[in-house]
Amino acid sequence: MSSVFFGPSGRLRGEVTAPPDKSISHRAALLGAMSVEPVRISNYLQAADTISTLNALRAVGALVEQHEDYVVVRGTGLREAREPGGPIDVGNAGTLMRLLPGWLAAQEGRIYVLDGDTSIRRRPVDRIAAPLTLMGAQIEASDDRFPPFVVYGTRLHAITYELPVASAQVKSCVLLAGIGADGTTSVVEPVASRDHTERMLAGAGASVQRDGLTVSVTCTDELDAQSLTVPGDLSSAAFMIAAGVLVRGSRLLVRDVGVNWTRTGFLRILERMGAIAIGALEEPSQEVATTEPVSDIDVAAGPIVGTAVEADEVPLAIDELPLVALLGCFAEGETVVRGAQELRVKESDRIAGVVDGLRGLGASIEATADGFAVTGAGGRGLRGGVIDAGGDHRMAMLGAVAGLASREGVEVVGMEAAAVSYPAFAEDLARLA
Ligand code: S3P
Fold first, then answer.
1. 186 lines ligand 1 (CB under 6 A)
2. Which CATH architecture does the domain made up of 3-20+232-432 adopt?
3. Short-list 405, 389, 408, 409, CA closest to 397
């Protein structure tokens, strides 16, 4: 495990291009594998999670070519995923673990075993097993809840499913299964979550309808995913943006960030905090778009104030909430996040990790069952110290940004975890400093 020290930084200046979006890369490869025609994906994320996806798709029969600037996926078609010789290794990738079974469940008479690393073995799959079972598939999970788990593919039938938790992964799983099921499958969300799957399915010729918080797909024989260029990942860019806001005197341009409105909750939270992080954000819409909007984000450091994040905003900023806690440490007043119990089942328990980690750096922060409350120190900021990433990429990057903005610097234990989503993170940060 590598420990890296991030000392207090002078102002950050210059431009950085956001790394390719992880969520969109997973989905593009998956839809490519489900399609009949080859799909060319430019700017595919070359990181541990999305390489796991390419390998998993190879295991079920897709041909994947890696070129310097793009990836080509030659799919098997909707109903011809092969049965692999052994377990499919999803590595650390929760999105892969929850989306792929949606497709595999519709493979009549075939059996698939999915497994991953020690973190993945702690992440629940009962949330996808429940709807897939209602559709007719059989799922056998360890302790009825965890990987490794077995998917017995079958002829699926359509359902209307009310999601008990707001989760784009579960929604996507049901929609992908719905594409191969008889009839029209609907998913009702408690609150809106990222809609990349809907957009991409519509772009691939599927019939996708949205009515408020209900999204429906109708069975089809063929998908024809479009070749696409993956936009930059707001969830990765968020670390650069937070560093730009927190490190005194900074002025940055973060280029090519995906600004789909279902992803930009963090930028709206920042705006409420009084931070300067400006881009041409997509407006919320009821329409099912087929493309992903992109913008540069202009960031400048400045004083910030506390804010409250409530349940309806949580899925739109879910992976950035640890950064909201960090920003809260530097804000005047209190920052509270509620309705975010999902953070407990991410790559690590991100409520415990954020609260213990930031407290160790001198923060005044309390955990609640579904979030946290931070009492900001305003301009005094954060002392610094040591933080353990606990194998979680976003916790590693959080520690690094905390270090740059702190008074004494932060040693991040397990910095290599960043390679899961943002392999060039440390280099990009060093260039700005
Ligand atoms: C993701 C959805 C979110 C997010 C994860 C990626 C996706 O998870 O935290 O990093 O690509 O659909 P949930 O849907 O479980 O909230």
1. no
2. Alpha-beta prism (3.65)
3. 389
